[in-house]
């Protein structure tokens, strides 16, 4: 399994590459624009050239920014326009994987159909793009906190050959899936395989949780220091079913905790699951 972090690009892709190398990343995840702004973005040639160097060094996943709510694209055109724009920015860098949250909506049945329709519109427009829907903690009216909801979204998407899952460990725990048990972890994976088919998990988000089991409160924390604890991460990162995948940490940026989180995760990897085999 390749291990890395979500890193900022505001200081330029050359900085992102240097930081990734400094931390020992084998994969990075990025926002392709300011995640807290509806503002427009276009790539400059020097940015494209710098990104090419980064992407030749390691896999790069994009993550949809905070503002587009893809469960409400029928209510405000900015949500679909923003989704399409970030897919366009991915294309400009030849990024082929975009992670998205499923949005929030009080009417979940309606929201699930709108999420699926929104994903289809983007996949129809960008034929080289694969979208990964991320499970949520279930906070508020967030969609995608259960495997059943994720499966419903998946099954309504016409272009689901380019739709994968991104499993976030903290969100699973916060939504009530007790992944501290290896037996429960295996049950979750089996349930996903039964509903989606094999090889539909495309990325792992490796985060501990600052909130308790079934809290439905989305708070990431440092590996081994939250309510999930260290032992589950050992069997997750060494799960042979996911040896070919990437695991991205989205732990809080605090002092030298990136270095510490990388050190901890690396200490859990068995030699057969290390970078040499991934």
Task: Explain what the structure shows.
The chain is α/β, with parallel strands linked by helices. It is built from nine helices and ten strands. The longest helix has 18 residues, at 108-125. It is globular and about 45 Å long. The mean pLDDT is 96.
How many domains make up the 3D coordinates?
Answer: 1
The beta-strand count equals 10
Query: What would the CATH topology be?
Result: TIM Barrel
Could you state the order of secondary-structure elements as H and E?
EHEHEHEHEHEHHEEEHEH
Beta-strand portion reads 15-25%
Distance between the termini: 5 Å
Global geometry: globular
Oligomer: single chain
Radius of gyration: 18 Å
Look at the structure and give the CATH class: Alpha Beta
| Helix content class | 25-40%
At the fourth level of CATH, the homologous superfamily is Divalent-metal-dependent TIM barrel enzymes
């Amino acid at each position: 399994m390749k291990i890395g972090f979500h890193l900022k690009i505001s200081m330029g892709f050359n900085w992102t590459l240097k930081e990734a190398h400094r931390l020992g990343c084998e994969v990075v995840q990025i926002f392709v624009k300011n995640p807290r702004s509806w503002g427009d973005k276009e790539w400059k040639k020097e940015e494209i050239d710098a990104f090419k160097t980064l992407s030749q060094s390691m896999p790069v996943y994009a993550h949809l920014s905070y503002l587009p709510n893809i469960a409400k694209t029928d209510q405000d055109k900015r949500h679909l326009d923003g989704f399409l724009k970030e897919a366009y920015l991915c294309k400009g860098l030849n990024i082929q994987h975009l992670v998205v949250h499923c949005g929030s909506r009080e009417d979940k049945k309606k929201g699930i159909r709108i999420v699926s329709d929104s994903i289809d519109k983007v996949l129809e427009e960008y034929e080289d793009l694969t979208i990964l829907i991320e499970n949520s903690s279930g906070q508020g009216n967030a969609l995608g906190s259960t495997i059943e909801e994720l499966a419903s979204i998946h099954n309504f998407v016409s272009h689901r050959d380019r739709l994968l899952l991104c499993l976030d460990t903290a969100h699973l725990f916060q939504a009530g899936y007790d992944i501290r048990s290896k037996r429960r972890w295996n049950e979750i994976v089996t349930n996903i395989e039964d509903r989606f088919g094999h090889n539909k998990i495309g990325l792992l988000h490796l985060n501990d949780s600052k909130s308790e089991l079934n809290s439905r409160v989305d708070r990431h924390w440092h590996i081994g220091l939250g309510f999930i604890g260290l032992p589950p991460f050992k069997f997750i990162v060494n799960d042979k079913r996911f040896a070919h995948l990437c695991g991205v940490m989205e732990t809080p940026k605090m002092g030298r905790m990136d270095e510490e989180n990388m050190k901890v995760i690396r200490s859990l990897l068995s030699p057969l699951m290390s970078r040499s085999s991934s």
